[in-house]
Design a protein that fits this description.
It is a single chain. The protein has helices spanning 6-22, 27-34, 38-45, 53-63, 68-76, 85-90, 110-117, 125-138, 156-160, 167-181, 230-246, 250-263, and strands at 94-99, 149-155, 186-191, 205-210, 213-220, 223-227. With 265 residues, the chain is of the alpha/beta class. It has twelve helices and six strands. A hairpin with a 2-residue loop joins strand 4 and strand 5 (213-220).
Amino acid sequence: MADLSNPIASFIVSEIRRARGAAGMTQEAFGRAAGYTASHVSSVENGTRALTIDFIHGADRGLNTGGLFERMIEELGRPSWFVPWLDAERTATQLRCFQPSLIPGLLQTQDYARAVIRCDDRLSEEEVDRRLVERMDRQEVLTRKDPPHFIAVIAESVIRRAGEDFRDIMAGQIKHLISLAERPNISVHILPDEISMHVGLTGPFSLTCAGHQWLAEMENQLGGTVVDQDDDVDTLMSRWETVRNEALPRRQSVELMKEVVDSWT
């Protein structure tokens, strides 16, 4: 997952604010046209709420720019969708992640991450290497001074997905998870396969909190979507509580991971 740097985010916010002023629109009037409350607009403009692609679409619509701000994103940053997620992740005090299909990026070993990235056969080896470096760099958030409290819920099928050609990599990955789970700021919980139906089957998602502001991110085949609308974040928080409550406790999860690795030897 790629992102735009904070200076670029600040620049685009300032351009939206300037365009709003030039159009003679108050924050309330602009919000109505863009589909947001005045308080939401104010929070984005003063930097206390993340700028998302949905907000940019709203700004383009409300100011009738013909897609100007979205084109600015495409020119100034690699992704076609704006991702403030990494900036939020870097300053987070709490992180939550549910993954029904892969080990979360923050917990991946280099070998596992490379294998996952290589699944996209359109990527050159140079692009694979670049994305791998970015993913490994992200993990520094967990070892920084005063790191966030990170809780991950991972489906059991994820740790059991290991064909003969992938087993060594998966064994190394699970041992890494066990090691990480020993850190006081990291909890890894396994959602047992016997829980066959649960709300998490609709897909992976992550939540982050810096201060009192929660932000969510949902992954999909084209990259991801940042969610900052309060009602939507509340929905994902509720779903998080559901999958977390279905998962095994921390110690039992570690024991299950050990059993999986031992079964391959």
